[in-house]
């Protein structure tokens, strides 16, 4: 369905392929490539320039993640976040795409012996939708925490880690501060020697014809939610020499490549003693405060999930009681207790079907919110342990 809902999709895919082939990047991380046919078309078009590629499959409609590389991809790993929104929020659809982080491990610059672990998040962490009343903030914080843990535990064999994608968080948001502080990742926008592109590095801007203008009314310049983050792990250093974003429409056309501006970074990697940024918390001096703030928000989400679990459980019990009462009434009729009165079969059947439907729906939601509670409890416990370690550090 997404193939037909996306506006001028084929034209934009062709334009993206043209610019990638022309620019000749070393590594390309794409997201929201929902159609595998589009990926196949890009792969065929870019095969000469990027001989190595991979498409990450996840969820019902797919993660939309793919990577193209000039260097050999040694292996890949996909991790799907434990919380991805709500299946009954059909208008948002985050749950159905199975938000994930894809990890292609590549050997870049063989003559230098650099192995770069490149983590490319899914289409986004969970979308915000409403900043004033953000019901998805606990889910997005769980995803940010799991992404940070994923990076820490999978980057030990790498020399350089790159993280690129739409994180759906503003630079000052607690999720970004948690991710950067816990991993030591550096922001290419703030570290770049030269910058060229949209003002303040914004990647979701009001003058893009594919954006929802009402969502950006509080931000006349736009917002920066797409990032390239990086750090060196072993005896290498990484420096961002230049960062650029696309601006407006694609050359020679009346449409942009996407609803987001693309982010392009030129990184200089060299071997030089001990690499900076490898230690926990170097990017965030007040990491304990950040973890505390994130844990508080997760706790708020946990209490809301527990309330939802209780409400759906109560609904399922009431539906079950209604079915039992109907069963008693039917047995009474069969036993001749109400032989002198006609039995309303149609009304009885409709009520029974309604009760069964409510029972199944409420039971499904109760099970979902039970799993949500467990995931939030697990994350809250992990944050509590991390906070204890941070507070015990000298």
TrEMBL record:
Location in the cell:
Membrane
EC number assigned by the record: 3.1.4.12
Record-annotated membrane-spanning stretches: 316-340, 346-368
Top-level lineage group: Eukaryota
Give the pathway annotation.
Answer: Lipid metabolism; sphingolipid metabolism; Sphingolipid metabolism
Q: Which InterPro entries does UniProt cross-reference here?
A: Endo/exonu/phosph_ase_sf (IPR036691), Endo/exonuclease/phosphatase (IPR005135), Sph/SMPD2-like (IPR038772)
Q: Name one GO molecular function term.
A: sphingomyelin phosphodiesterase activity
A Pfam match: Exo_endo_phos
Q: Which UniProt keywords apply?
A: Hydrolase, Lipid metabolism, Magnesium, Membrane, Metal-binding, Sphingolipid metabolism, Transmembrane, Transmembrane helix
Endonuclease/exonuclease/phosphatase domain sequence ranges: 8-260
Single GO biological process annotation from the record: sphingolipid metabolic process
GO cellular component entries: membrane
State the annotated membrane topology for this chain.
Multi-pass membrane protein
Protein family: Belongs to the neutral sphingomyelinase family.
Q: Please give the name of this protein.
A: sphingomyelin phosphodiesterase
The gene is Smpd2
